[in-house]
């Protein structure tokens, strides 16, 4: 035997060995001894075969007698030699037992093992006819594997240690979890009684294992100390006759990770589940509890309560029952308190995992806390429910929970009747108060803000993720992260902001002029609005939604003026204060004030905030006195103040002042008739009125500038003198607050931070926000420094015919062909941003398996004719804009939008399984299920250093999916094995319409993993919410949703367009579709009882109908096939039974099958007829054509080439391959090699024969005019005769005495005319090559795919 194998990725290793192999499946090394029957005294002892290894018997010794024994156990070789010559049929397994006796005569211990002989699938070798019959026996060739198996293997699949014994024999032992032990002394030809005991389960009912046991499952009853019953599952696997493997598992493991003691019982049962004692009431059990439904009468549901140890005076109640068979859920556990106190509630998450691999009989049920608080920050944190933290300030309430840095803690809500909002506080920062409450029951991540008593902010980053049934809430430091919000105050006045809806005064924060402040929400549950006012001034309030970037708003604040005598402020600028300021007028700081009684205007020392000194300049030039008007509420709009209620500055006299006279100033009501003396204007450092040449001044020059001096209006002295303004006439306005009185406020993005920017309205125009200027300058500088770097780039890619992607597995066969047509990519790279727009006009994924009924897997749903115009957009569209980021760990996106059209998805089970195995799903099967004793799996990766992504807008929109699933009846064993590990069955349904809400997020700033999980979770929940839709389209219900859709479509057609035909057609389609589905499902069910051949033929008839669309013909075929099958059923089944099983048992089972078939086959045929007829009606009803099947883009690729490499795609080859499959009715083991077209006919060369056939659209067996199997072909030649070229195919002579192949006589040499010589040469070359390939294939060892043989190798 030449075995070729790959070593690594490049080297091929060719092993030359004999065809007789010994495989040691025992736990001990085995010695082999060979002796020749003619010379038994000269044995050959081969080196020991190690456990799990195999050894090929040397070529010249294969016919010698073979004996075996374990090495070093003091036993003889087994008495009976191992003979392989009597196992003749391929794939046959024959097993027998061997005993090795002990060398001590006193010690009667035996070593028993089992020998299984299997004839491998070697090519059949027949010695040629020159030998006589008796000699042929001697020359039989070996082609066998010899397995040495233990007689009994016990395997412990429980999570705890197990003791086993066999009653009445000295066999017992202890097994650790997951381990197995071989019992060498056990004898499977006797009855074995196996017993098991566990910790706390001392007693059991022994299990009797009779000889000749086949595969089966059984329950074993164990009893704990209190005589409560636990059933373990025992699965017995017969690897070969007499070699048993016994798996011991429990139906459920209940793993408690909640940190609470939990007690379980079956719903409605009398007692708690077995194995729970006093200590389980007090503390959590680390090892899983083995659980089963012991009471057959009660429902298979489980219930639980909290152990009595936590609240000794409370009464724990049982929760609502839950199933242990899949999915996850939550149950609240109540504890009723004494007296009037409210009950306590613990929320427990339940997560059920089906075991895989060896653990397939077990469900692992994890009980996890619903909330887990994980402190990854550098602080010590305290947590409390908001109701308890409210009003606590810096102290901790009674029920708070704390956790140190780097540790985590389980959290349960102390009270369920309060809002479930969590608050957090830093314990190691002095005077730190509690944060606002935040929700913890949805995936999210945000900053949380805590203040100290001075109002300073401390931030923590909170990330909430759902793992199985637990929300994991992790807190981390934010020094690496930019804050979510920032307030930039570029104005000259201090501003105060609060979150809208927050009442506490300590949570309003002042931002001083020209400073910035980082911020996060004080109350995350309130809407995202900020209220802004100017500090101290009566100003209006404005609200900002921080999630929207909007144009700037104006914020007005009152800005009063003082009217100051300029000279009295001149001395104070030096900053040297004399002792007696009143002596020196230059330091008097005098401003205009009003005497309350006389309303006369006088000079007084400036006092900040004194209302009688404050004036307002009106738009019409009136100087309005603030002190004489009622104080107003700053939050009310200013319209409430009427103009006439306030007094304005005027002169005391009735008429204008005469020359050189002085007129005192006083307050009067505003009066239009006196507008000349009520209109004032500051100019050139003087205060003038509406009359020319008069200014405000004091009498007696500088000496008149004293506190309490009267202010008068007099003629302007400096006009005559043309000199500087005399000090007694210098009056200016001083603003009470800096700035113009109007602030401009807007929300702008700065990377992931949203900034509330406050600037002075007048400033804004002059130096449009200084930071932007700096950036522009910086950009220009950068361009100057390295001019080559900042290039702008625009890329346009247009692929009209698109891209095709073909997936080919290692068989090789093509699985799917995905085509994306009309691809447009537009990419622009500027200094300020990068924009990419991608659109794909059409997407289609074809199912390329040959012989499938669903040729297309994914395609864009065709529009019904009514709304043809509505939307013909691309199938998939991606728009994204990326901004440059200052922080290396942050990627900024302005937006990312992915939109798709409505898709139709048709999943065929066989293809789905093949794709899963293509992507390596089946390799990841975990053999040993690890369960963790710890409460929570540690997350090992360092947080905070991950790349984060920020989107202003993120939107993924997949509006609608029409989903169909088609199950496959016959699956090959490898796919069957994969299907069993999937853990969920597929149900056949058609056209379930699933509408999905788009996934939208505003301003997320997350890691990639978090965003992906969020998207997946969103669409999973959407799918789950549509489960009823899917159920409504299931076939065995006859697709009620489809019927509804059809009828409603027909009725809308009738109402909109008066289309009666449409209504009738749609209803016909719906009803016949329902009927077809129902009948098809029933006939599928009946098909399970039939023999394989009949079933295959039925499948083929249905496949023909599905591909050609001739349902009616197929229905009649099916009916006829069923009736004929029924009439002949008794005979055919009986013959088949005798053939496969042999003997009386085969005859009886075949006869039984035949009798059943007599009834079921005609019935199934009739149902097939009904189903196909209904489908034919359905297809005629869809004249509108909008439900027509999509077609494949191209035929399945031919994956084999004469060179054995993967060839390029060729339309001719693909078509030839398709025709070949039609000819041979989808039989998979003959594959296509080449096709050549000659004028009117073509040559199809397959791996078994060559066909010459007339070519047409639809080829069947009738088109063949010459078919030669390679078995009969001797060789192929090119002949020339009278200028014509022929191919001559020489057949072999029928029987020759020598056993060698020779060419046959002339009448067995058919010739075919070919048009040119080089074509003839090519064809003959290909035929000869295919024949040599065929001869080589015949000598190959083919793998048989039988279930039992897989067990031998396990």
Notes on the structure:
- By secondary structure, the chain is of the alpha+beta class.
- Helix content is 20%, strand content 35%.
- The chain is built from 20 helices and 77 strands.
- The strands form 18 sheets. Strands 58, 59, 60, 61, 62, 63, 64, 65, 66, 67, 68, 69 and 70 form a 13-stranded mixed sheet that branches. The chain has a 6-stranded mixed sheet with strand order 14-11-20-19-18-16. Strands 23-21-28-27-26-25 form a 6-stranded mixed sheet, with no helix packed on it.
- Helix 15 (1092-1108) runs antiparallel to helix 16.
- The longest helix has 39 residues, at 1143-1181.
- It starts with a strand and ends with a helix.
Offer a concise description of the structure.
The protein has 1354 residues and is α+β, with helices and mostly antiparallel strands.
Could you give the count of β-strands?
77
Unreliable runs: 573-582, 634-642, 766-770, 924-929, 932-936, 1183-1187
Q: What's the pLDDT, averaged over the residues?
A: 82
Structural class: alpha+beta
End-to-end Cα distance: 24 Å
User: Strand content of the residues, in percent?
Assistant: 35-45%
Q: Mind summarizing the main beta sheet?
A: 13 strands, mixed
Number of helices: 20
> Fraction of residues in helices?
10-25%
Shape: elongated
Rg, Cα atoms, Å? 47 Å
């Amino acid at each position: 035997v030449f075995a070729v194998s790959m070593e690594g990725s490049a080297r091929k290793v060719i092993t030359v060995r004999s065809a007789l192999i010994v495989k040691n499946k025992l736990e001990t090394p085995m010695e082999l001894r060979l002796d020749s029957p003619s010379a038994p005294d000269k044995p050959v002892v081969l080196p020991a075969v190690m456990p799990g290894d195999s050894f090929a018997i040397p070529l010249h010794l294969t016919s010698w007698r073979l004996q075996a024994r374990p090495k070093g156990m003091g036993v003889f070789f087994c008495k009976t030699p191992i003979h392989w010559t009597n196992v003749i049929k391929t794939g046959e397994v024959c097993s027998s037992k061997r005993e090795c006796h002990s060398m001590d005569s006193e010690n009667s211990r035996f070593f028993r093992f089992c020998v299984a002989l299997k004839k491998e699938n070697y090519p059949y070798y027949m010695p040629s006819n020159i030998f006589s019959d008796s000699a042929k026996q001697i020359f039989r060739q070996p082609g066998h594997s010899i397995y040495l198996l233990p007689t009994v293997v016990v395997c412990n699949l429980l999570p705890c240690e197990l003791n086993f014994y066999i009653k009445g024999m000295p066999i017992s032992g202890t097994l650790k979890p997951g381990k197995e032990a071989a019992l060498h002394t056990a004898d499977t030809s006797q009855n074995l009684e196996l017993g098991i005991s566990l910790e706390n389960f001392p007693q059991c009912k022994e299990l009797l294992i009779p000889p000749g046991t086949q595969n089966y499952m059984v329950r074993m009853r164990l009893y704990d100390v209190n005589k409560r019953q636990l059933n373990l599952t025992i699965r017995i696997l017969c690897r070969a006759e007499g070699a048993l493997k016994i798996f011991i598992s429990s139906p459920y493991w209940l793993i408690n990770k909640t940190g609470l003691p939990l007690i379980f019982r079956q719903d409605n049962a009398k007692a708690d589940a077995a194995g729970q004692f006093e200590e389980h009431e007090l503390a959590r059990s680390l090892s899983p509890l083995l659980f089963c439904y012991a009471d057959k009468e009660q429902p298979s549901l489980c219930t639980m309560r909290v152990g009595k140890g936590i609240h000794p005076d409370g009464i724990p109640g049982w929760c609502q029952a839950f199933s242990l068979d899949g999915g996850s859920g939550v149950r609240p556990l109540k504890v009723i308190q004494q007296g009037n106190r409210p009950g306590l509630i613990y929320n427990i998450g339940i997560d059920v995992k089906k075991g895989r691999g060896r653990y397939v009989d077990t469900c692992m049920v994890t009980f996890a806390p619903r909330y887990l608080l994980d402190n990854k920050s550098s602080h010590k944190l305290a947590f409390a429910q908001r109701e308890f933290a409210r009003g606590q300030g810096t102290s901790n309430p009674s029920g708070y929970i704390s956790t140190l840095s780097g540790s985590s803690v389980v959290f349960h809500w102390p009270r369920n009747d309060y809002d479930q909002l969590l608050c957090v506080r830093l314990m190691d920062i002095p005077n730190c108060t509690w944060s606002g409450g935040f929700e913890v029951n949805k995936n999210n991540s945000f900053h949380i803000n805590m203040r100290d008593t001075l109002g300073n902010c401390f931030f923590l980053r909170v990330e909430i993720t759902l793992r199985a049934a637990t929300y994991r809430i992790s807190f981390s430091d934010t020094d690496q992260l930019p804050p979510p919000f920032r307030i930039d105050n570029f104005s000259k006045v201090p501003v105060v902001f609060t979150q809208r809806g927050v009442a506490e005064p300590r949570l309003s924060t002042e931002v001083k002029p020209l400073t910035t402040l980082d911020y996060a929400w004080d109350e995350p549950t309130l809407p995202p609005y900020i209220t802004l006012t100017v500090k101290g001034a009566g100003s209006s309030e404005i609200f900002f939604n921080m999630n929207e970037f909007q144009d700037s708003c104006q914020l007005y604040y009152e800005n009063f003026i003082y009217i100051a005598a300029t000279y009295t402020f001149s001395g104070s600028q030096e900053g040297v204060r004399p002792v007696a300021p009143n002596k020196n007028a230059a330091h008097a700081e005098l401003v205009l004030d009003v005497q309350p009684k006389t309303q006369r205007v006088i000079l007084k020392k400036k006092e900040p905030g004194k209302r009688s000194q404050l004036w307002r300049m009106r738009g019409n030039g009136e100087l309005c006195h603030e002190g004489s008007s009622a104080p107003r509420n700053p939050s009310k709009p200013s319209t409430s103040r009427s103009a006439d209620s306030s007094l304005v500055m005027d002169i005391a006299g009735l008429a204008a002042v005469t020359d050189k006279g002085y007129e005192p100033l006083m307050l009067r009501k505003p009066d239009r008739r006196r507008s000349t003396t009520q209109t004032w204007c500051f100019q050139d450092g003087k205060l003038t009125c509406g009359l020319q040449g008069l200014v405000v001044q004091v009498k007696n020059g500088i000496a008149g500038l004293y506190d309490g001096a009267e202010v008068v209006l007099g003629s302007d002295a400096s006009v005559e003198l043309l000199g500087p303004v005399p000090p007694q006439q210098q009056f200016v306005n001083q603003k009470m607050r800096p700035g113009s009185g109007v602030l401009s406020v807007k929300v702008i993005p700065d990377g992931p931070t949203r900034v509330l920017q406050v600037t002075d309205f007048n400033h804004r125009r002059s130096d449009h926000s200084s930071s932007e200027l700096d950036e522009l300058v910086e950009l220009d500088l950068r361009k100057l420094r390295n001019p080559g770097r900042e290039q702008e780039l625009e890329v346009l890619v247009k692929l009209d015919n698109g891209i095709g992607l073909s997936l080919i597995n290692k068989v090789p066969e093509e699985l799917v062909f995905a085509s994306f047509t009309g691809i447009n990519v537009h990419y622009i790279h500027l200094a300020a941003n990068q924009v990419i727009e991608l659109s794909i006009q059409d997407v289609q994924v074809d199912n390329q398996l040959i012989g499938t009924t669903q040729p297309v897997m994914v395609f864009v749903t065709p529009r019904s004719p009514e709304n043809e115009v509505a939307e013909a957009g691309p199938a998939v569209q991606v728009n994204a804009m990326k901004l440059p980021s200052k922080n290396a760990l942050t990627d900024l996106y302005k937006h990312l939008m992915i939109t798709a059209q409505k898709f139709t998805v048709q999943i065929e089970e066989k293809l789905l399984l093949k794709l899963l195995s293509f992507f390596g799903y089946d390799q990841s099967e975990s053999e040993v299920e690890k369960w963790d004793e710890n409460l929570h799996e540690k997350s090992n990766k360092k947080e905070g250093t991950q790349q984060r992504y920020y989107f202003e807008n993120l939107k993924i929109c997949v509006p609608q999916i029409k989903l169909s699933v088609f199950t496959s009846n016959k699956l090959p064993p490898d796919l069957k094995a994969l299907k069993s590990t999937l853990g969920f069955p597929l149900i056949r349904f058609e056209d379930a319409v699933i509408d999905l809400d788009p996934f939208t997020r505003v301003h997320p700033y997350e890691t990639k993993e978090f965003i992906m999980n969020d998207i997946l979770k969103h669409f999973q929940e959407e799918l789950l919410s549509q489960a009823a839709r899917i159920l409504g389209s299931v076939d065995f219900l006859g697709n009620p949703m489809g019927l509804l859709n059809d009828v409603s479509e027909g009725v809308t057609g009738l109402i909109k367009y008066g289309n009666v035909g449409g209504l009738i057609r749609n209803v016909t389609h719906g009803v016949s579709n329902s009927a077809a589905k129902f009948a098809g499902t029933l006939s599928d069910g009946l098909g399970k009882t039939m023999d394989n051949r009949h079933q295959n033929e039925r499948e083929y008839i249905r496949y023909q109908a599905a591909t050609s669309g001739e349902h009616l013909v197929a229905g009649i075929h099916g009916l006829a096939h069923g009736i004929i099958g029924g009439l002949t059923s008794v005979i055919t089944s009986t013959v088949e039974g005798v053939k496969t099983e042999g003997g009386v048992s085969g005859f009886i089972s075949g006869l039984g099958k035949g009798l059943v078939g007599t009834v079921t086959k005609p019935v199934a045929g009739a149902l097939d007829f009904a189903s196909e007829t209904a489908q034919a009606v359905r297809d005629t009803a869809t004249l509108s054509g909008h439900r027509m099947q999509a077609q494949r883009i191209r035929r399945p690729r031919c994956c084999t080439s004469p060179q054995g490499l993967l060839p390029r795609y060729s339309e001719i080859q693909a078509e030839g391959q398709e025709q070949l499959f039609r000819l041979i009715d989808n039989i998979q083991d003959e594959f296509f090699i080449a096709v050549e077209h000659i004028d009117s006919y073509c040559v199809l060369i397959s791996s078994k024969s060559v066909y010459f056939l007339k070519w047409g659209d639809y080829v069947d067996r009738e088109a063949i005019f010459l078919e030669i199997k390679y078995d009969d072909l001797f060789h192929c030649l090119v002949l020339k005769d009278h200028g014509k070229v022929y191919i001559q195919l020489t057949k072999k002579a029928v029987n020759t005495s020598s056993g060698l192949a020779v060419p046959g006589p002339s009448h067995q040499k058919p010739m075919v005319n070919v048009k040119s010589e080089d074509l003839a040469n090519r064809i003959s070359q290909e035929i000869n090559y295919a024949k040599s390939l065929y001869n080589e294939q015949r000598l190959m060892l083919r793998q048989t795919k039988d279930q039992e043989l897989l067990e031998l190798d396990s």
